[in-house]
Amino acid sequence: MAAYRNQEKLSHTDSDPHLAGTDAYALDERRRAALAEVDNAKFSWFHVKVCMVAGVGFFTDAYDIFAINIASTMLGYLYGHKFNLNAAQSLGVKVATPVGNVFGQLLFGWLADVLGRKRMYGVELMIIIVATFGQAVSGNGQAVSIIGVLVVWRFLMGVGIGGDYPLSAVISSEFSSARIRGRLMTAVFAAQGWGQLAAAIIALILVAAYKTPLLHDPYPVLNHVDYMWRLLIGLGCVPGCVALYFRLTIPETPRFTMDIERNVVQAAQDVENVLSTGKFYHDPDAVVQKAQTPRASRRDFLAYFSKWENGKILLGTAYSWFALDIAFYGLGLNSSIVLTAIGYASPSPKSTLDAYNSLRNICVGNIILSVAGLIPGYWVAFLFIDSWGRKPIQLMGFAMLTVIFVIMGFAYDKLTASTSARGAFVFLYCLANFFQNFGPNTTTFIVPGEAFPTRYRSTAHGISAAAGKVGAIIAQVGFAQLVNIGGTNHFVQHILEIFAFFMLTGIFSTLLLPETKGRTLEDVSNEDQNGFVQGVAGASSPKNNASVTVESR
Description:
Elements: H1 2-8, H2 23-39, H3 45-79, H4 87-114, H5 117-120, H6 123-136, H7 146-175, H8 181-209, H9 211-215, H10 225-234, H11 237-248, H12 254-259, H13 264-277, E1 279-282, E2 288-292, H14 298-306, H15 308-332, H16 335-341, H17 352-384, H18 390-410, H19 412-415, H20 419-437, H21 440-446, H22 454-482, H23 492-510, H24 521-524, E3 535-540, E4 549-552
Helix pairs in contact: 1-2, 2-13, 3-4, 3-7, 3-8, 3-10, 3-11, 3-17, 4-7, 4-22, 6-7, 6-10, 6-11, 7-8, 7-22, 8-10, 8-17, 8-21, 15-21, 15-22, 15-23, 17-20, 18-20, 18-21, 18-23
């Protein structure tokens, strides 16, 4: 371990002199060396695997969340009054997932800090797979409608998706070196863009595949639309099933092993083995020497976050995510409504051909929105996240979004008055998507995964993400209650003005955040790492009598 050899050269004056010559001093130095090796590691195939395993989950999350954009229109054709779900039905199928997200983010965020990242990773994906399949085979009954069944399944799916946020963020940040951490986490999160695009493309393929049967349906009964939405939702299981094995077999992060399990020796071995060979070796017969390090507890949690220098960061990450998601999900989950409002699709088809054209246009419109704004925004953020830094990108994003939503809202009537003007509206819509992702949508995911100590990192990320989903819920409820005031979709312009206000408030919450670019996770945590190991708690016997294993990662 080159980093360990370098750390050995540190003079005793660089550490607490009272630890010198003791087991605690040796463990502290070994911990520092192991962390240095992770933080200074060169980009390797192992980093690619972590990125891919975490990224496939986010691909699945985005596909499952945003496929409901198009599926809700299909459900309206089948089960709605005059081809539209009523406000309560539309709200239910859209808001159920963010409500589940809140529970999942808080629960899995806490469990990952208590039980371990590895033990929880994959559990949330199993919930997503089961709930997605359940949606695809839902049916009507005498006691409950199919919309009610879908709401329940989408809530459960939301719990799984919510768990994916803190787990994937923390695992990718704790395995990454400081130099590339921003790009690795951005690449994981950017899989969302591909998931949204895939949902629109799959929907377009399904609409095209069922065109002939649909045109022969006895209008107004559109039986073959039922095949479309079930396949669209059900295919979301496929990437999750592919990723499940790799998630269940990913190694525990060295930081959790050394700072929460307090097994510094095992963590140091894991660092050397995983980064060099892609494998980790666990000897169940080894005697565990536990280090005395700060331990998570309710009292310690309150003591840490009651300090303004720490509490303001949690406040900043939580509110920034809250403000962003009001606009991000308010637009994202209602893109079909926005496309209809500007005349890109028919709200009530007059024939089977009209229904086909309307579905096709909604699919094409969502593809355009993804390709023109969402995906480029993620990857421009990828290019600059480790050079510009997180804070400047978030400030710039909130500022640009404020301006864009002001224009879209206050000039809405003129922007939707003609075909050419509607083209300008779509351009601004895409520009908003671009600066959401080349801006706060990416950075609000990254910063909470970096800015807190290991024992609270996943919990704090879960709290921040849950605050965001509360914003998404408010946006959905507000959108549903306000959008038709004065007539169908007449209040859209004022909703856009409300979005502008929240983007403005996000600028101020961003000022509470530190810049984490290029800094180690321990440095950002605001805790003194000099003499972090305060003593030796003693040796414990092995947890089980299983055979020695060598696992490939």
